[in-house]
Amino acid sequence: MRLMHVDASPKRQLSNSKMLSAYFVETLKKRIPGLTVDYLDLSVETPPHVSGDFAKATYTPAAERTDAMKKTLEYSDNLCARVLMSDLLVFAMPMYNFSMPSSFKAFIDNLVRTNLTYNFHEDGTTTGNLTRQKTLFITARGADLRPGLSPWSHMDALTLALRSPFAFLGVENPWFVDAQPLQFSDQVAREEALKRARHELDAVAQEWVDSIARLQ
Fold first, then answer.
1. Which of 3, 120, 127, 159 has the most crowded Cβ, counting Cβ within 10 A?
2. pLDDT-above-90 percentage for the chain
3. Residue 73 region, left (φ>0) first, then alpha (ψ -120 to 50), else beta?
4. What HEC string does the chain produce?
5. pLDDT over 80 at 109, yes or no
């Protein structure tokens, strides 16, 4: 069993999303014997942003790509391979201006690849190739954007921005655990939010463990 763990926060010890993702992964490691973890910190290894050369290379048939094109796609090729060989995917990030950090957007741009992570068919339809991976998004938010509880809930652009591209890649029912609100001005609400997130992560971990056990 292989898990890919991706953090997208530039913070270190002060990162709530990193702390929560580490908590979840450690919980799984204790419950799934032999679990292999492939860790990627996007603040250390930031994906290259899409360039004109990248776009040209991706639209060139693989057999016709030059050495320069292959070099341009090298990071993306390796990233796609790492994701595709994983059984479990854990993506953690803070919310920046109601959406994702640019490093994770670059991650997505490098991951959405024709004939690798999705297939484009002659009739114009597409099918994603990440259909077997269990996928969890862990987000840390300063504001409380829970529907029905916050007047700002309509400004949550992050959930849709994560759900849509991964649905295109075949992830139909991802899990979301959103720690909110995490403002330092209200320590009580902050602690309650982190406690609530850990409780939700425990539930997801148990669900994953039970599901894996049924398949064995």
1. 3
2. 89
3. alpha
4. CEEEEEECCCCCCCCHHHHHHHHHHHHHHHHCCCCEEEEEECCCCCCCCCCHHHHHHHCCCHHHCCHHHHHHCHHHHHHHHHHHCCCEEEEEEECECCECCHHHHHHHHHHCCECCCEEECCCCCEEECCCCCEEEEEEECCCCCCCCCCCCHHHCCHHHHHHHHHHHCCCCCCEEEEECCCCCCCHHHHHHHHHHHHHHHHHHHHHHHHHHHHHC
5. yes
- pLDDT, residue 149, reads 78
Q: What pTM value is reported for the model?
A: 0.96
What are 16's two structure tokens? 């709530």
Instruction: Find where tokens 């994983």 sit.
Output: 86
User: Which positions ≥6 away from 49 have C-beta within 8 Å?
Assistant: 102, 106, 109
CA proximity to 193, closest of 24, 26, 20, 6: 20
CA distance 55 to 58: 5
Pairwise CA distance, residues 58 & 76, whole Å: 10
For 45-60, the pLDDT digits (tens) are 999 999 999 999 999 9
Tell me the Cα Rg of the chain: 18
Neighbour-count burial for 22-59, b at 16+ CB within 10 Å, e otherwise = bbbbebbeeebeebebeebbbeeebbeeeeeebeebbe
Are the CB atoms for 110 and 72 separated by under 8 Å? Answer: no
